[in-house]
Each structure stands twice: as structure tokens, then as C-alpha cells.
Write a structure and sequence with these properties.
By secondary structure, the chain is of the alpha+beta class. The protein has a domain at about 20-90. It is about 15% helix and about 30% strand. The strands form two sheets. It has a four-stranded antiparallel β-sheet with strand order 4-3-5-6, covered by helices on one side. A two-stranded antiparallel sheet has the order 1-2. The structure holds zinc ion. The site of zinc ion has 6 residues, from loops.
Length: about 100
Amino acid sequence: MIVVDLRCTICGRFILIPGCHTCPPLWDVVRPDYEDEDYPQNTIRCDDAEDAVLEYADDKFSDWEYPTNIEIWARLHDVIDAEWQKFNIGVESVPSFSIYERM
Ligand SMILES: [Zn+2]
């Protein structure tokens, strides 16, 4: 592990105490019915499966304009026979406001 500017070069997190850092695990993340769970193409480094799924959803679906529910699975990347943890994600549109002073 090489430390540059007190950030881990693998996970990017700040290293507060050199020599005491452990990277969070790598997760496979898939959207079943749209991606092949036997050959997952997305990996995300996070503390747990929920965070990995939420990061995937934020990356892929944050620009959707209508609410929907999406099924997303995550499993540990480097663990043989790791079980998929399955989640339903609710995607909601968020209103935004702009203002103009009337003349
Ligand atoms: Zn790290």
C-alpha cells in the first residue's frame, strides 16, 4: 500500500493512523433481469452491501424523473460462493425550485 497525501491509493479514504488502515471490501453489484448475475460487471468498494447498492443506484438512477422501485443485488467480490444480498430500492423524484424577481 502506497500512501499519498494521507489518502489510501486503493480506496481513497483518509488514513488517520499510518499502518492501521484497512480498505473496505469490494462488492459485486447487479440489477437482475438487466444484467447477468453470473458475470457481474460492477464492483463497488463499501463497508456493507446496503451502501454498495445505494451507491450503485445513485450512480445509475439519480437522474430518473419518475418514481419507481428497482431490485439490486450485492455480494462480496472476492469470496467464493458468496450469497447475493437482495434489496428493493425506491427511486423518487425530488422537486427543485428556481426564482426570478418580477419586473
Ligand atoms: Zn484503503
